[in-house]
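Researcher: We're teaching a course module on how sequence relates to structure. For the next exercise, students receive a sequence and then see the predicted structure as tokens, so they can try to spot secondary structure elements on their own. Here is the exercise chain.
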Amino acid sequence: MQALGRVLERLRARDSAERRRLERELPETTGFSAATVREGLTLALTEFSAAALEALVERELGALGKGRLASGFDATAVVLGGGVPTPTLLALATPLLLGSPVLVRSSSHDPVTARVFASALAAEAPALAESLELVSFPSDDDAALGELLAAPCVVAFGSDETMAALGARLGPTQRFVRHGHRLSVAVLGRAAQSGPALGEAAAALARDVALWDQQGCLSPVALYVLGVERVPDALLTALVSAFEEAAQRWPRGRVSLQASARSVAERDTAELRAAAGADVRIRAGRDFTLVAEPNAEFRGSPLYRFLRVHPVASAEQLLEALATLGPHLAAVGVAGVGAELDALGPELAALGAARVCSLGTLQCPPLAWCHDQPGVLLPLARLTDIEE
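Model: And here is the predicted structure for the students to work with:
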């Protein structure tokens, strides 16, 4: 644990060779702008410390009690996906923490982070580094994938379709820890809908959306404005200002032709709806699109800083709208909710939200947040009761 803690501290340190390498190489491979990578890593790695790792172990394994042991599998295969780097770091560290050797296939969107982690581990603990092996093969190499999936424990990231395809290839005795499609939303309460509080909330939301260009599961794709029948024009004005400032500080990265086409199609659809008489308002800048919707119905987002803004008259209507997201709801960022959160929190948890936090902190979750599993370490562990 101490060696892995030192690895995390290396990655947190802004002046370390590993951190500089991440900031230098990730923009080219992932397509994120250099400013987005710097700010995203600074925020996310705030919680990736040796002390946080120790607290995680104590929280999950220390609570097992006398006579119950947790151990890692003989091997853990990790199939990475996406371009956001921080999930990769945790996915590699946790099996090693349990004593399980790890085979890793990096995402084509980010081949850098796993290599940097392996380099830092080799510097801190050469013997432990021998338990981590990075493998690479084409996506159509079915035989190589089959060998990787032969591990007794498989951890995978990707779409729900990818999770289903991988799960179909695993045997009944294998452990499958899946991280499929997740998304997040934001909620703006009455106390943050005017005055200085509105400006602060808008800036916080703009940062949560801008960082990682809405590509992570903690990036909000919709904002629900609580207690209104119609999205106020003043609120849209504040959002435009905040999103323009965010675009200057953290420019949007590369956008594929397919993603660009989806954004154009969604904007065109919104304009057609408005022309047909729907109360749809569009505010767009060079690097963002805001669409004020007439109701709370969830419509999805093409991402890359495309945010829908919904009015919700009551907390009950909010919960009804979010119920359609079901188990895909990763996090809910809130501002100006106040005492209503005491009632909303349990209801959001019942819907499946794994995290409820303040706007502006969505991109820096605690190391121990439970994501979509019952814990961080326990899904990767074998438990044994040794009775007296």
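Model: If you want an answer key for the exercise: The chain has two domains: 2-180+372-385, 183-358. The longest strand covers residues 220-226.
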